[in-house]
Amino acid sequence: QVQLVESGGGSVQAGGSLRLSCAGYGYTYDTYCVGWFRQAPGKEREAVAAIDSPDRASYADSVKGRFTISKDNAKNIQYLQMDNLKVDDTAMYYCVAKPRWCGSWWSWEYDYNLWGQGTQVTVSS
After folding, report:
1. Residues 6+ positions from 41 with CB-CB distance below 8 Å
2. For an engineered disulfide with 91, which of 38, 72, 86, 100 has Cβ 3.0 to 4.6 Å away?
C-alpha cells in the first residue's frame, strides 16, 4: 500500500526551530513531487513547500528564508527544517506527494493524491 507518515511536530517558543519528517511507503521518492501543506483554525489550507529534485524547490512567500525542504531518495524520507518560527506558523502540517514533477502547479492542493495524517506545530510567544 502507498502511504505517508509524518513526525517531528511539537511545541516551541517563537524564534525556535523544529524539523518535520515524512516517510513514504509503497512508492519511490525520485519519481514523485513531495511537499508540505498547513492549516490553522479558521484559515484556508496553504502550500508551504515542495521539491522534486535538489534544485527544484518551491516555497510560500511567508516561509522563504526560514524553512528548508529536502529529501533523501535512498531512504524515501522528506524533511522540512523550520527555523525562526513565528506564532503565525502554528498549524497542522500535512505531508503530500504526487507521482510526477512538481511543475508550476506545486501549490494546488487537488493535484496531490497522497496525504499524511498531519502533525501539529504550536509556536508560543
Report:
1. none
2. 38
Query: Cell for 9?
Result: 511536530
The per-residue pLDDT for 79 is: 96
Dihedral class, residue 118 (left if φ above 0, else alpha if ψ from -120 to 50, else beta) = left
- Cα angle, residue 91 at apex, residues 33 and 81 outer, rounded to 5°: 50
State the Cα–Cα distance between residues 106 and 59, nearest whole angstrom: 9
- Convert the pLDDT of each residue in 65-120 to its tens digit: 999 999 998 898 999 999 999 999 999 999 999 988 898 889 999 999 999 999 99
Q: How would you write the chain as a 3-class SS string?
A: CCEEEEECCEEEECCCCEEEEEEEECCCHHHCEEEEEEECCCCCCEEEEEECCCCCEEECCCCCCCEEEEEECCCCEEEEEECCCCHHHCEEEEEEEECCCCCCCCCCHHHCCEECCCEEEEEEC
The conformational region for residue 106 under phi > 0 = left, psi -120 to 50 = alpha, else beta, is: alpha
